[in-house]
Backbone:
């Protein structure tokens, strides 16, 4: 009797913990996942304004403008499409024109992407994987050549 | 020459691992003592060979032998000696060699220090350990050979990723590996127990110190890693819920659960199946972590290079070891005898609850880490799951754990009195509430921070309630107290410190809510206020390091007009890799820190700066150190180690040998 009761208590405690976790996970997955788009996908899918997104591509050469204070504006490109990004804050050490970048934030009604965080690569030699994939989709990524040109 | 001998030693180590994979198991099945006795010396020699291979690679790095691909790609002759040595594990091949080195180190330690262990158990444990070693040495030799030569040796190397040229990196990976790979021993114990079918208190007694060693190293390794990220990435954050961090957190959660439930198994012979399951799970999560980090599925500073064959190979190892052990588990677990009984309200009950919550936390982290990968594999859709996900799932599950921790410590085995324990905890609980009220009135700030600080105070005080009662109970003299202190088992102190350490870390985390952050452009001579301090940016000083040049922004910190200290946040440029890296300027003032990083140094000497005031932030890592200290106290407890096992075994009647 005792053993059965113990097992019952155990199992119901386990079920309670698991269902709580499951509930939390589902809730969190509904509201807190962030989709990643390349510039072309972004133009195609046209997510509604205010949705949190990550975008990635190359920083277009010559597009970086310091707008005074800490605000910068630059274009992210996959060579087919561009997205204009504004960001206020410090740019990461590895941020540079012509290089891969990932920005997280929201797309405004003005079609300008308001980033609140900017990630560049950890390492000079590698492209953020999402960016490489987005570029591959547009057929502008050449595996060996790109890597070599990055190493310079 | 030395490089070739190193390569050769590694091949020999593989051969020995294969020998040790078969012979001892055969011995234990055939009950042949001579075959079983093969295991320990072979494990020791195997360790010697791997250590030699590792030494050979280190020497190649130290003397900058650029005929080695590995050295060319990751070293530079001007690199400081310390980074030549630590650079060995700053790349894929070398870090895998370190993995195998730690693996065989643990096998050697078992061979040396477990003489009192039943012979067949030791033989099986070493055999399982050799399976893992064989798989990973094969992986190194076939896909990631660190000893590969280059036809035409270049004059200079490509240097190590500057982010990795840091003292933090010198300590973080070896510690993390000691923990990560240390869990292989618990896995080997579990698999050996399943093979021999003997799963009892003796098993738990022997597995506990090893789990503890792995846990201590993992705790320190994670803390070091987070501190490294904090001061080298220049974002002022210390935990990003990055998949790579999660990969180390998951085994830690499983190991913590295992640490607690082996206590139940040792003391009460209960929860056997669960203990075995956790022992397998903990190392499986280490393997999953290795796969995530090493296969190139993730982009991070840890993913040195992505080569698809490596990913597939590791995946194969993963499937064989995780699948095999769980299949064995499914076969054998049903036949296990039920252990001791306990009421739901008891030490055992509390530990069961602890395990439930820890494993559920682990499951949420697992989901958050792997769901994006799975989704991308299935639908091609790219998503990222960031801190909001984990704050919503992990944190609510962890809070009850904090509340329960002191209860678990105070509840007796078998059956406890909840009301009595609650009464004893009343002081700690009251202190927590008072602390919350005072904070809210005096300091204000975010509600979450106030509440978590109160919980932290309750946990810290609650951890010591039991000790205080046992030492000072009944109002006794000082002599009596010290006498009692000597009489208490050291692991009682260990538990108290480990739990309090977690509370201290929580306090540090809660205090982030009172921090301040400013991003601003500063001209030379300009001052800015942050928290209770005033920072004056003086000028940019150009400096040269051994393999980099840097621009340091000399900044003076003042408190109420008086100079406290100066910091030199810098941006460094490493010419070989044409890469910039920022070096944050950090001043530890009391337990808080002023943190400043600079970027975009303009021609007129103006900089863009990110400045933080982080009150009590040091507590986050001090807490981890105290946790590890508690672990060491428990580990030093002789009765906790093999001593008791030896005595208990002597007391037992000689085990009848089955008829042949």
Residues:
């Amino acid at each position: 009797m005792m053993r059965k009761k113990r097992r019952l208590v155990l199992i119901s405690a386990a079920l309670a913990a698991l269902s709580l976790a499951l509930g939390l996970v589902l809730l969190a997955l509904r509201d807190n996942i962030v989709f990643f788009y390349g510039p072309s996908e972004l133009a195609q899918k046209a997510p509604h304004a205010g949705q949190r997104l990550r975008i990635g591509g190359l920083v277009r050469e010559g597009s970086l403008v310091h707008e005074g204070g800490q605000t910068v504006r630059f274009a992210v490109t996959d060579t087919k499409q561009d997205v204009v990004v504004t960001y206020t804050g410090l740019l990461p050490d590895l941020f540079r024109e012509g290089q891969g970048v990932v920005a997280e934030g929201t797309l405004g009604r003005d079609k300008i992407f308001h980033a609140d965080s900017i990630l560049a690569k950890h390492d000079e030699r590698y492209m953020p994987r999402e960016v490489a994939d987005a570029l591959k989709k547009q057929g502008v990524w050449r595996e060996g050549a790109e890597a070599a040109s990055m190493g310079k | 020459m030395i490089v070739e001998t190193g390569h050769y030693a590694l091949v020999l180590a593989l051969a020995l691992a294969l020998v040790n994979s078969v012979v001892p198991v055969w011995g234990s099945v055939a009950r042949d003592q001579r075959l079983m006795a093969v295991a320990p010396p072979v494990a020791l020699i195997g360790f010697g060979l791997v250590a030699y291979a590792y030494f050979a690679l280190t020497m190649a790095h130290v003397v900058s032998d650029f005929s080695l691909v590995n050295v060319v790609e990751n070293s530079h002759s001007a690199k400081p000696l310390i980074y030549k040595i630590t650079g060995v594990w700053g790349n894929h091949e070398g870090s895998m060699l370190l993995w195998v080195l730690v693996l065989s180190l643990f096998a050697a330690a078992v061979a040396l220090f477990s003489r009192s262990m039943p012979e067949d158990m030791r033989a099986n444990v070493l055999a399982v350990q050799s399976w893992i070693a064989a798989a990973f040495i094969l992986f190194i030799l076939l896909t990631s050979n660190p000893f590969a030569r280059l036809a035409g040796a270049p004059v200079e190397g490509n240097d190590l990723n500057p982010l990795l040229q840091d003292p933090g990196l010198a300590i973080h990976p070896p510690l993390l590996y000691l923990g990560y790979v240390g869990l292989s021993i618990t896995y080997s114990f579990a698999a050996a127990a399943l093979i021999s079918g003997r799963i009892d208190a003796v098993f738990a007694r022997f597995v506990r110190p090893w789990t503890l060693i792995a846990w201590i190293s993992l705790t320190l390794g994670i803390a070091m890693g987070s501190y490294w990220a904090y001061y080298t990435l220049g974002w002022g954050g210390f935990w990003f819920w990055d998949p790579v961090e999660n990969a180390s957190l998951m085994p830690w959660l499983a190991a913590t659960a295992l640490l607690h439930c082996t206590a139940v198994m040792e003391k009460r012979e209960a929860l056997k199946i669960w203990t075995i399951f956790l022992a397998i799970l903990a190392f499986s999560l280490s393997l999953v972590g290795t796969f995530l980090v090493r296969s190139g599925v993730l982009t991070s500073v840890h993913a040195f290079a992505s080569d698809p064959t490596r990913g597939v190979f590791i995946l194969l190892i993963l499937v064989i070891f995780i699948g095999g052990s769980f299949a064995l588990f499914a076969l054998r677990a049903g036949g296990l005898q039920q252990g001791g009984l306990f009421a739901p309200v008891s030490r055992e009950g509390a530990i069961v609850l602890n395990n439930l919550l820890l494993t559920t936390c682990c499951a949420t982290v697992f989901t958050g880490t792997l769901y994006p990968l799975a989704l991308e594999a299935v639908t091609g859709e790219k998503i990222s799951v960031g801190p909001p996900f984990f704050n919503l799932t992990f944190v609510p599950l962890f809070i009850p754990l904090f509340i329960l921790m002191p209860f678990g410590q105070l509840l007796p085995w078998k059956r406890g009195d909840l009301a009595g324990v609650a009464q004893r905890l009343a002081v700690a609980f009251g202190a927590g509430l008072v602390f919350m009220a005072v904070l809210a009135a005096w300091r204000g700030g975010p509600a979450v921070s106030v509440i978590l600080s109160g919980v932290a105070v309750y946990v810290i005080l609650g951890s010591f309630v039991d000790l205080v009662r046992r030492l000072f109970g009944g109002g006794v003299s000082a002599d009596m107290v010290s006498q009692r202190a000597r009489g208490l088992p050291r692991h009682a102190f260990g538990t108290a410190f480990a739990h309090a350490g977690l509370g201290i870390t929580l306090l540090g985390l809660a205090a982030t809510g009172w921090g301040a952050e400013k991003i601003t452009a500063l001209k030379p001579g300009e001052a800015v206020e942050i928290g209770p301090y005033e920072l004056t940016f003086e000028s940019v000083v150009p400096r040269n390091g051994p393999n980099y040049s840097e621009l340091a922004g000399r900044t003076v910190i003042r408190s109420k007009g008086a100079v406290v200290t100066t910091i030199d946040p810098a941006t460094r440029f490493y010419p070989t890799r044409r890469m910039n890296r920022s070096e944050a300027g950090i001043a530890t003032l009391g337990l808080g820190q002023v943190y400043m990083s600079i970027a975009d140094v303009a021609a007129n000497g103006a900089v863009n700066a990110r400045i933080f005031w982080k009150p009590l932030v040091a507590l986050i890592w001090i807490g981890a150190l105290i946790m590890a200290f508690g672990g060491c106290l428990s580990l030093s407890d002789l009765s906790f180690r093999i001593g008791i096992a030896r005595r208990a075994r002597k007391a037992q009647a000689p085990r009848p040998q089955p008829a042949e």
User: Anything to note?
Assistant: The radius of gyration of chain B is 27 Å.
